[in-house]
Amino acid sequence: MDIAVFGTGSVGRTISSKLASLGHQVKLGTRNPAETLGRTGPGPFGMASFQSWAEEHRGIEVVPFREAAAFGEVIFNCTAGLVSLDALQSAGAENLAGKIVIDVANPIDFSSGGPRPMVSAEDSLAERLQRAFPTAHVVKALNTMNAFVMVDPSRVKGPHDVFVAGDDPTSRARVVGFLQEWFGWRAPIDLGDLTAARALEAWLPLWIRLWGALGTGDFNIHVAR
Ligand SMILES: NC(=O)c1ccc[n+]([C@@H]2O[C@H](COP(=O)([O-])OP(=O)(O)OC[C@H]3O[C@@H](n4cnc5c(N)ncnc54)[C@H](OP(=O)(O)O)[C@@H]3O)[C@@H](O)[C@H]2O)c1
Predict the structure, then answer these.
(1) Which of 16, 104, 171, 221 is 20 to 30 A from 152 (CA-CA)?
(2) Is residue 140 within 8 Å of 165, Cβ to Cβ?
(3) pLDDT tens-digit profile of 159-192?
(4) Which of 6, 10, 11, 144 best tests ligand 1's pocket when mutated (most atoms within 8 Å of CB)?
(5) What DSSP designation does 220 have?
(6) Among positive and negative, which fits the CA dihedral 187, 165, 108, 8?
(7) pLDDT given at position 119
(8) Any idea what the Cα angle at residue 31 is, between residues 25 and 33, rounded to 5°?
(9) How far, in Å, from the CA of 29 to the mean position of ligand 1?
(10) Cα(204) to centroid of ligand 1, in Å?
(11) Which residues line ligand 1 (CB under 6 A)?
């Protein structure tokens, strides 16, 4: 499949390289490809610089958000949550129309030092994206765990869960299939319409505290029944 991944941080890199390793054609969206490809500083979480990473993943073309969106049949939003709307706007509504946008982003404010989750019981980033792009099919998924766990659930021992939420049942079902087929999730839990994204984004404050307490990102939610 032709897939667009928006975002050059650890999530965008991890998802795009996994998809490319499975034989998909992937374009990675960024604001300014030349500037991004010129980044030689260390990447996040011990990753290589973006320049080195791109050299090791030459099959993944680094392009403006708009070009990636026009290319992808499915789009992953892995941009910083507070600016995801800007990223999608620069992609162009016409390039999102009718497509599944898998929203992995969390709205976090880093402006005052440590991470401050901007979550609400009355709205969510995913709903804001859906309102801004009514002809796209926004599906919230994967935002409740670390990037490496998203594409390799076996990093966490025992059963654990991933969730999907979105207004279009067909798109939710397709994303459930993608998560199983591409990343190896056994039984993603369908939470229904996109208002469930409020709860998925509200997990973030506890995730951050657990990360600090456990000293690793290799953990996840297990819904025991
Ligand atoms: N890190 C994790 O393990 C993890 C887990 C779950 C969810 N998430 C969520 O996934 C998303 C990606 O996280 P991340 O750590 O990989 O990367 P990030 O640093 O949060 O975001 C990087 C991306 O945001 C884009 N960006 C920054 N400012 C922008 C602006 N003003 N306009 C448009 N785009 C802009 C960057 O564009 P350029 O490429 O142009 O620089 C880059 O592609 C976040 O929303 C995060 O909360 C992360």
Answers:
(1) 171
(2) yes
(3) 999 999 999 999 999 999 999 999 999 999 999 9
(4) 11
(5) -
(6) positive
(7) 87
(8) 60
(9) 11
(10) 15
(11) 7-12, 30-31, 36, 44, 78-81, 83, 86-87, 104-106, 108, 143, 146-147
Mutate to test the pocket of ligand 1, among 27, 35, 37, 79 (most ligand atoms within 8 A of CB): 79
Provide the pLDDT for residue 45: 87
pLDDT digits (tens, 9 = 90+) for 13-45: 999 999 999 999 999 999 999 999 999 999 998
**pLDDT exceeds cutoff 90 at 114:** no
- pLDDT more than 90, % of the chain: 94
Provide the residue type at 131 as one letter.
Answer: R
How would you class 28 by CB atoms within 10 Å of its CB: exposed for 0-12, middle for 13-18, buried for 19 or more?
Answer: buried
Ligand 1 geometric centre to CA of 78 (Å) = 6
How much is the mean pLDDT over the chain? Answer: 97
Q: Give the atom of ligand 1 at the shortest distance from the alpha carbon of 12.
A: 16
66 burial level (CB within 10 Å; 0-12, 13-18, 19+) = middle
Instruction: For residue 158, give Cα distances in angstroms to 51, 142, 225.
Output: 36, 18, 14
From atom 42 of ligand 1, which residue's Cα is the shortest distance away? 7
Distance from residue 225's CA to the centre of ligand 1 (Å)? 34
Q: CA-CA distance, 73 to 96, in Å (whole number)?
A: 9
| Assigned token pair, 210 | 């657990």
